[in-house]
Amino acid sequence: MWSAAILAGGRARRLDGMDKSALVVGGMAVIDRQLAVLRGRARNIVLVGFRGPGPAPCPVIDDLTPGTGPLGALVTALISATTDRVFVLAGDMPFITAPFVEYLAALAHSARAVVPASAGRWHPLCAMYARDAAVELSAALDAGERTVAAAVERLRPRLVSDEELAPFEQDGRLLANLNTPDDLVRWNARPI
After folding, report:
1. Averaged pLDDT, groups of 10, the chain, 192 residues long
2. pTM of this structure
């Protein structure tokens, strides 16, 4: 069994501080799209650092090291996990699919981190982790590291190649995120 943690506490500076999880893509809020994929698959789901308007749609965990960015949120997710494996997902990725998440979960036994690597770019905030990876990641954080990929590299992750990702890809959307108003317009202009 595995659990899931959605990292939902970013500042969204390029979106004027808007709550990315509440952004609507294809007629549905990002958080609702993510939960639709994860519910019934993950043993439990938590939101790390959620600050959205209104009540949270699932339990919220406060960031244990506020101000340390996504790496701190990742460490919080792992430390707070109730299962040995944890799917960690950035709160601004609306296009993940159930088959893709299940594929990562199937690989979870092969390494302490299973990280998609598309076109040479790692996606460590859409990855499966062993809960005990929190030890190394926390040490990296304590040493001043703030770059998630650099910290995760210490785990010697099992990278998921472009060839492996191809069956799950949706017109270049699978690992897309929403960082700018242009991203939101672009992804809403394409049929889902």
Report:
1. 89 58 83 95 94 82 92 97 97 94 96 95 97 97 96 97 93 84 68 63
2. 0.91
